[in-house]
Amino acid sequence: MGQQAPRPVYHRLESPTQTPVDAARQIASGEIWGRAPMSSQIPKVKAYRGPLPPGARRVEFTTEVPPDPDATPLRVDWSGPRPGVAVDGEFAKIEVTITRNTQV
């Protein structure tokens, strides 16, 4: 049997909406949540492609849920509802595996 391709890696920057407390919640729940960006009313989980740069304060993760098809080379979003993306009130949610947390 052939080897399964590794899942893409994504990361989120530490910010007022991605605090160390949020990173701890993400590790405990296995979920990342996101609100609608200022330019939209559609809740989205937002992240950057690729692993954490050295020295960065961020959380790195993988997910089996593919990002929205209109993603850019650097940034990705997950909006829903759709398979793998739940919408709960003002939040979109995806299941993730946290691979690294430098916000501690």
Q: Can you walk me through this structure?
A:
There is one protein chain. By secondary structure, this protein is mainly β. The chain has one domain (9-101). The chain has 1 helix and 8 strands; from the N terminus they run E-H-E-E-E-E-E-E-E. It has one helix spanning 20-29; strands at residues 9-13, 31-34, 44-49, 58-62, 75-79, 86-88, 91-95, 97-101. The strands form 2 sheets. Strands 5-3-1-4-8 form a 5-stranded antiparallel sheet, covered by helices on one side. The chain has a 3-stranded antiparallel sheet with strand order 2-7-6. A hairpin with a 2-residue loop joins strand 6 (86-88) and strand 7 (91-95). It is globular and about 35 Å long. 27% of the residues are buried. The mean pLDDT is 90.
Short description:
The chain is mainly β and 104 residues long. The protein is 10% helix and 37% strand. It has one domain (9-101).
